[in-house]
Amino acid sequence: MSKTCTKCGVVKPLDDFHRYKTGAGGRKPHCKECVREYKLRYYEENRDKERERNRRYYEENRDKVREYNRRYYEGNRDKVREYKRSYREENRDKMLDYQRSYREENRDKMLDYKRRYYEENRDILNQGSKISQVQNTRTSNLLASKKGAPYSPEEDALILAENGMTTYQKAIELGRTYASVKARKQHLRAGC
C-alpha cells in the first residue's frame, strides 16, 4: 500500500510514514523525510530554547538519564566502542586542535588542578610510584628479553587484528614497546 504525503505531495510506501492511531491508514499525514526536515529546521531556529529545555530535563532527571545511559552502554558496548573509535579516526585533527587550544586557554586552571590533586593525594601517589617502579623493572626485564627479536606470525596477526584493542594494549600484550608495535603495524599494512 502507499500514501500521499500532505507536505511534499509524493506518493510513498506506508513504511515511509510514522505510525499514528487516529491517522488515515494508521499513519501520520507527513512522510518521515518531511518530518525530519521540519524538526531540523525547528531546532536550528530554536537552538537556545531547545538546549535550555534539554538542560532542564537533565537536571530534573539526572539519575534516570544516567541509569538509561549505563544500561544502553552495557547492552551496546561493542557498538559504542566502534563508534568512538571511528569518530576518533575521522576527526583526529579536529580533536587534536581542540585539545591544544583548550590546554593553551586553560593552562593556569589545569596547573592549579594538578597542584591541588597532588597535595590532596600525595600519600597515595608516593605509594603508587613505588609500585610502578617495581612494575617498570619487570617490564624492562621483559622488553630486554624481546629487544631485537623478530616478530612471529602470531604476533603479526594480533597487531593487524581489528579486535577493539588499541596499539598500546597490543604492545602490553606482546611485551614490546609501543613504538615498535606501531612501526610493525605500519610496516605490515604497507605490505613490505
What does this structure look like?
The structure is a single chain. It is built from ten helices and four strands; from the N terminus they run E-E-E-E-H-H-H-H-H-H-H-H-H-H. It has a two-stranded antiparallel sheet. The protein starts with a strand and ends with a helix. It is mainly alpha-helical. Among the domains are: 60 residues, 2-Layer Sandwich (Wheat Germ Agglutinin (Isolectin 2), domain 1), CATH 3.30.60; 70 residues, no CATH class.
Descriptive terms for the model:
single chain; 192 residues; mainly alpha; Wheat Germ Agglutinin (Isolectin 2), domain 1; two-stranded antiparallel sheet
* Element pattern in H and E: EEEEHHHHHHHHHH
Question: If you compute it from the alpha carbons, what radius of gyration comes out, rounded to the nearest whole angstrom?
Answer: 27 Å
Distance between the termini: 57 Å
Order of strands in the sheet with most strands? 1-2
Q: Give the number of DSSP strands.
A: 4
Structural class: mainly alpha
Can you tell me the residue ranges where pLDDT is under 50 for at least 5 consecutive residues? none
Mean pLDDT over all positions: 85
Largest sheet: 2 strands, antiparallel
Strand content: 5-15%
What's the overall geometry?
Answer: extended
In short:
With 192 residues, the protein is mainly alpha-helical. Among the domains are: 1-60, Wheat Germ Agglutinin (Isolectin 2), domain 1 (2-Layer Sandwich), CATH 3.30.60.130; 121-190, no CATH class. Helices cover 72% and strands 7% of the residues.
